[in-house]
From TrEMBL:
It comes from the Eukaryota. This is B30.2/SPRY domain-containing protein. PROSITE patterns: B302_SPRY (PS50188). Residues 68-80 have a biased composition (Acidic residues). Residues 81-90 have a biased composition (Basic and acidic residues). Residues 53-90 are annotated as: Disordered. Residues 125-318 form the B30.2/SPRY domain. SUPFAM superfamilies: Concanavalin A-like lectins/glucanases. InterPro entries: B30.2/SPRY, B30.2/SPRY_sf, ConA-like_dom_sf, Gid1/RanBPM/SPLA_SPRY, SPRY_dom. Signal peptide: none annotated.
Length: 324
């Protein structure tokens, strides 16, 4: 038995108003589509009814009494069924109104989709802004970095109010190290890159090294260059990538008066090495993927009495970070 409401004409409702106000738009759409199907079926039934009347006549001529009695019973059953179901009369205005209502529902759904897309865009924009602010805070925090007196060899001296200058104070030849107070976190969601520079102020020997390590070493008699997790730039033109020595152009060696830098671009894991504001051709050197979510501590190692450097953790570098 049909559950549709019967309408005698399209004037009984406005196509812009819900025909079934107690239903959601999607439910109403399904009901209206089913109603159209029912109306179409009713249309196709009309010719068959007419043809039956032409064959047998209006008075039932050509049928015996039993057939006539059976038809009378069937006719009575059909009449009772018709009382329970909506009229089969097909109104063109009625059908048009239903189609208009379906069109209106589709329009509303489209508008809702556009509104939802707009809301999603605003949410993503907000997330992007929050991530940008987070990266800015992380970068500003790193700019407050300095050398850590708790992880400094006894032959080295940290100088200055900002604790950025390191001086080899003892007449005792040997590689001595100091580590920075704050690590860098290799997380592309927190920051896009890490970079710092040192300027060589005085150098007695042609040897020095700086870079970063996965941990603050308690053994400060020089960096563990051959161990995993060490990335460094040595003054005699050697670069160390994850404990492996890489020979580079001799022009990349540095000494008194030079400013050199080291860093990493987090999204690509690409290492960055610079000298006096120019980037070195080391694009093939990458941070090992196993350290992609780890932390690194900047360090510097000095070898002879009188060696002195000054660190720059930002934001004003000789190398232009905007070129990355």
């Amino acid at each position: 038995m049909s559950s549709f409401t019967t309408f005698s004409s399209a004037d009984e409702f406005s196509p812009l108003q819900p025909i079934f106000p107690n239903l959601s738009t999607s439910e109403e759409m399904s009901v209206l589509i089913a109603r159209i199907a029912e109306l179409n079926r009713a249309k196709t039934m009309e010719p068959s009814v007419a043809s039956s009347a032409e064959v047998f006549g209006q008075d039932g001529y050509g049928m015996n009494d039993d057939q006539f009695s059976l038809d009378e019973e069937e006719k009575e059953d059909e009449q009772q069924e018709d009382r329970k179901t909506p009229t089969k009369d097909v109104s063109e205005d009625h059908l048009k109104a239903i189609l208009e209502r379906i069109g209106e529902i589709e329009k509303q759904q489209q508008q809702q989709s556009i509104a939802t897309a707009g809301q999603l865009s605003k949410i993503l924009e907000k997330i992007g802004e929050m991530e940008k602010q987070t990266k800015k805070k992380v970068f500003l925090k790193f700019q407050e970095n300095c050398w850590d007196a708790n992880f400094c060899h006894e032959y080295l001296e940290i100088i200055g109010d900002k604790s950025l200058i390191v001086h080899h104070k003892e007449n005792n030849y040997g590689c001595r190290s100091v580590f920075a107070k704050y690590p860098i976190v290799l997380n592309k969601h927190l920051s896009d890159f890490f970079y710092y520079e040192i300027s060589v102020m005085k150098k007695q020997t042609f040897w020095g090294i700086f870079g970063f390590d996965v941990k603050q070493q308690t053994k400060l008699n020089g960096p563990n260059l051959g161990e995993k997790g060490t990335y460094a730039y040595q003054s005699n033109d050697n670069i160390w990538i994850n404990g492996e020595r890489k020979g580079i152009n001799a022009e990349y060696s540095y000494g008194i008066g030079d400013t050199v830098g080291i860093g990493v671009h987090f999204p690509s894991r690409q290492m960055i090495f610079t000298k006096n504001g120019l980037r070195l051709d080391t694009s093939d050197f990458l941070v090992d993927p196993s350290f992609s979510d780890g932390s690194f501590y900047p360090f510097v190692s000095l070898r002879a009495f009188g060696d002195k450097i000054e660190a720059n953790f930002g934001p004003n570098f000789k190398f232009d970070l905007e070129t990355l």
